[in-house]
Amino acid sequence: MDVFFADDSSQAKPSRRGMGRLLAVGGLYVPGDEVRYLEDAINETCEKYGVPDGEEFKWSPRRNSWMYSSLKGSSRTDFFSEILGHCAGVGAEVSAVIVDRDLPTAAGAAVTPEYTTGLLIRQVDRIAVRRSTTVMLVVDRPGGGRTEEERLLTAALNTLRQGGGHELPRRIALNPLCTTSNFIRLLQAADVVVSCATQFLAGEALYSPHIFNTSVRPLLKVSPIGGTAIALHPETRYANLYHWILGDPVFMERALGHALPDPKYPYLRDANTP
User: Fold this and answer.
1) Which of 30, 137, 155, 189 could cross-link to 114 by cystine, CB 3.0-4.6 Å?
2) d(Cα 239, Cα 236) in Å, to the nearest integer?
3) Residue 100 and residue 85: Cα distance in Å, rounded?
4) Quick check: 41 and 87 in contact, CB under 8 A?
């Protein structure tokens, strides 16, 4: 059984023109027989860089944290690169769903964390189908406490049992298990990949491009179809970004392939002109 380690991220003010507030959820899909090794390897990297026992590492560390004051510049970049290199070495994959909160869903409803979670579950299920295995989701406990945790688990259970208006996931073993990320290094690595991907897709140009292009991109499943590894919603607005940012030449809509860039969608000329 494989394991998907999930965390969330957000970007309130994307730099990319035409984007609204972003909500993202995603993380690392790890082959089951590599979980123990990868957790140990990441721990060894933390020791190498002086991360104290019990200290959580994050893409955007809190100002009062050890990492914020003691792991900076090229050292932090090297640290992230080494961790994600371990992930690539065992065949781990990145999967993420990034949704514009200021635009309605395909059904005309407002975007919610529960909606985004349902999209991710279906995306992770497709990875497990491709790998011919089952998968368990381990999720960082939401910051809103027990109430937010129960909302997330209820939404996930609805997706698993009823499909949420789509085909039932076939390879998810259990409803997601929530835990606190400071106990599991792989959840901390999930924070790094989903936060880096969100900032990069949002147009942040100072920190995320190097790590994304050198260390996150190798963890994306190679596919010519946009939205396979990182999905941007609503896709009818952001489909051309699959081409400009991720290099995908094709986007599937209602089982039909569209060559990208497609004149029906915004961002026809480039990634910065909606």
Assistant:
1) 155
2) 6
3) 30
4) no
**Residues contacting 126, CB < 8 A, separation 6+:** none
- As given in the structure block, the two tokens for residue 57 are 């590492």
Of how many residues is the chain composed? 274
Tokens of 67: 């990492």
269 vs 24, 142, 221, CA distance in Å? Answer: 25, 38, 26
Question: Looking at residue 145, what is its pLDDT?
Answer: 62
Query: Phi and psi at residue 202, in whole multiples of 5°?
Result: -80, -5
DSSP-derived 3-state class of residue 256 = strand
Task: With beta carbons less than 8 A apart as the criterion, state whether 45 and 56 touch.
Answer: no
Bridging pattern class, strands 93-100 and 250-253 = unpaired
φ and ψ at residue 171, rounded to 5 degrees:
-120, 10
Cα–Cα distance measured from residue 216 to residue 137, given in angstroms and rounded to the nearest whole number: 20
Place of tokens 């994307």: 14
CA angle in degrees (0–180, nearest 5) for 65-72-84: 95
Percent helix, strand, coil in the chain, to 5, is 45, 20, 35
pLDDT of residue 74: 96
Instruction: Fill in the amino acid letter for 162.
Output: Q
Crossing angle of helices 35-48/185-201, nearest 10°? 80
The whole-number mean pLDDT for each consecutive block of 10 residues of the chain, a chain of 274 residues, reads 95 96 96 98 98 95 95 97 98 96 83 87 94 95 69 73 70 91 96 97 96 97 83 93 94 82 95 94
pLDDT at 107: 73
